[in-house]
Automatic annotation (TrEMBL):
UniProt xrefs under NCBIfam families: PRK08304.1, spore_V_AD
SUPFAM superfamilies (alphabetical): Thiolase-like
Gene3D superfamilies xrefs: Stage V sporulation protein AD
Name of the protein in its database record: Stage V sporulation protein AD
A GO molecular-function annotation: acyltransferase activity
InterPro entries to which the protein is assigned, alphabetical: SpoVAD (IPR010894), SpoVAD_sf (IPR038369), Thiolase-like (IPR016039)
Signal peptide boundaries: none
Organism, scientific name: Shouchella clausii (Alkalihalobacillus clausii)
Length: 334
C-alpha cells in the first residue's frame, strides 16, 4: 500500500465483493428508490423507537450485502461501522449482535468513506481477507439529538437539511470483482466560524473543497480523469459553495458533479436543501452509484463524504462548527 502523507493508493488490490442498502419510506419514495435493496414503509422500521429503527436499518443493509455473496457472518474477519448517535450506539449494538471484531468510527456524515478507507487498509495490508463496512442515520433519532424533537414543530430555513433514514453496507475483499478501491485521501478539519446548525452545507463545503483539491494535487490528476465527483451531503446550498471554492482554485466540475443529498429526494418532497446524514452517502453510493459503475455508465468516481463535527452541547454553547471530508476513488475494472 502506497502512502504519501494523507493520500494513499491501494497497491494490493481491494475489491467490493457486494453491497447492501436499506432506507425509510421517504427515501423509498424518492428518485433513487429502485436502486435500494430494501425499503421500509414505516419510519419505525417495525421497531419500538427511532434508535432501534436505525439498528434495524443497518442490520438489513448487512443482510442484503451478505446474501448477495451467499456468505454467512462467520466469513467476515472485521466489522467497521459508524453512525450519528451518541457514542455510536447504533453501530455498537449491531456489533454486539454480530459478534465480530469491531472498530467503531465517527466522522459525522463522512463516516461512510472513513469506514471504507479503514476497511481498505486492513484488506490491502493483508491483515484481513473480508471486511464489512457500514454506516447509518435516522431522521427521528437525529432530530431528537441534534435539533429539536419533531413535536416541537420548529420552522426551518431553506438552508436546513433532512436527515436520511437509511443505511449502507459493503463487503471488501481481495477476490477480483468489477469494482475496485484504488485511492483515498484523509481530510483535514476545517472551520470557517459558522455557528448555525441549520446551515451545515455551508460549514462542510470548505472541508469538501480542501480534500478534493488535496487529492487532485497529490495524485497529479484533473477533474477530467473522473467520470463523476460526488459529495456526501452538501445539499443545494453547500454544493454551490463547494463549486465556488473550487472555481477560485481554477477547478471546474460542472457536468461531472452530483451530491448524494440532492439526488436522494424529489424536489416536491419538502426536504428543504436536501438530504444529510451518514446514511445518505452510504445508501446512495452503495446503491445508485455502485449500480452505475457495475452497468458501465461510470468508470472512475471520486467520492467525497462530508461531515459536520458538532454536538448538541457545542451548539448550545454557540461554538463554531468544524467539518471534515474524506475522499476515495472507486473504479470499474474490465
Amino acid at each position: 500500500m502506497g502512502l504519501s502523507h494523507r493520500t494513499m493508493t491501494f497497491s494490493n488490490p481491494v475489491y467490493i465483493q457486494s453491497s447492501g442498502t436499506a432506507v425509510g419510506p421517504k427515501e423509498g419514495a424518492g428518485p433513487l428508490a429502485g436502486s435500494f435493496d430494501y425499503r421500509y414503509t414505516d419510519i419505525y422500521c417495525d421497531e419500538k423507537s427511532w434508535e432501534m429503527a436505525e439498528r434495524a436499518l443497518m442490520k438489513q443493509a448487512i443482510k442484503q450485502c451478505l446474501t448477495k455473496n451467499h456468505l454467512s457472518i462467520d466469513s467476515v474477519d472485521l466489522f467497521v461501522a459508524g453512525d450519528l448517535s451518541n457514542q455510536t450506539t447504533a453501530s455498537s449494538f449491531v456489533a454486539r449482535d454480530l459478534q465480530l471484531p469491531y472498530i467503531g468510527t465517527y466522522s459525522a456524515c463522512a463516516t461512510s468513506v472513513e469506514t471504507l478507507i479503514i476497511s481498505g487498509v486492513w484488506v490491502s495490508s493483508g491483515l484481513a481477507d473480508l471486511v464489512l463496512a457500514a454506516a447509518s442515520s435516522h431522521y427521528g433519532a437525529c432530530e431528537k439529538q441534534f435539533r429539536y424533537p419533531t413535536e416541537f414543530a420548529v420552522q426551518k430555513p431553506e438552508t436546513a437539511q433532512t436527515t436520511v433514514t437509511g443505511a449502507g453496507a459493503v463487503l471488501l475483499g481481495k477476490k477480483r470483482t468489477e469494482i475496485q478501491l484504488t485511492e483515498a485521501t484523509i481530510g483535514r478539519v476545517q472551520d470557517l466560524g459558522i455557528t448555525d446548525p441549520m446551515s451545515l452545507g455551508a460549514a462542510m463545503a470548505p472541508a469538501a473543497a480542501e480534500v478534493t483539491i488535496g487529492h487532485l494535487h497529490k495524485t497529479n490528476q484533473q477533474v477530467s480523469d473522473f467520470d463523476l465527483i460526488v459529495t456526501g451531503d452538501l445539499a443545494i446550498s453547500g454544493s454551490e459553495i463547494y463549486r465556488k471554492l473550487l472555481r477560485e482554485q481554477g477547478i471546474y466540475i460542472t457536468g461531472r458533479y452530483e451530491d448524494c443529498g440532492v439526488m436522494m429526494y424529489h424536489s416536491e418532497q419538502q426536504v428543504l436543501a436536501g438530504g444529510s446524514g451518514a446514511g445518505c452517502s452510504a445508501s446512495v453510493v452503495y446503491g445508485h452509484i455502485y449500480h452505475r459503475l457495475l452497468a458501465g455508465e461510470l468508470k472512475r468516481v471520486l467520492v467525497v463524504a462530508t461531515g459536520a463535527l458538532l454536538s448538541s452541547m457545542t451548539v448550545l454553547q454557540k461554538q463554531s462548527i468544524p467539518a471534515i471530508a474524506h475522499a476515495i476513488v472507486l473504479e470499474r475494472r474490465s
